[in-house]
Amino acid sequence: MAQLDVDISANLAEVRLCIAAAALRVGRDPDEVTLVAVSKTIDAARVRAAYAAGQRHFGENRVQEAEGKIGALADLADIHWHLVGHLQTNKVRPALGLFQLIESVDSVHLAEAISRQALVQERVAHILLEVNVAGEPSKYGFRPAELPDAAARIAGLPGIALRGLMTVAPAVADPEEVRPVFRTLRGLRDDLQQQVPESRWAHLSMGMTEDFEVAVEEGATIVRIGRAIFGPRA
Ligand SMILES: *Cc1c(COP(=O)(O)O)cnc(C)c1O
Question: 2-230 has which fold?
Answer without folding.
Answer: TIM Barrel (3.20.20)
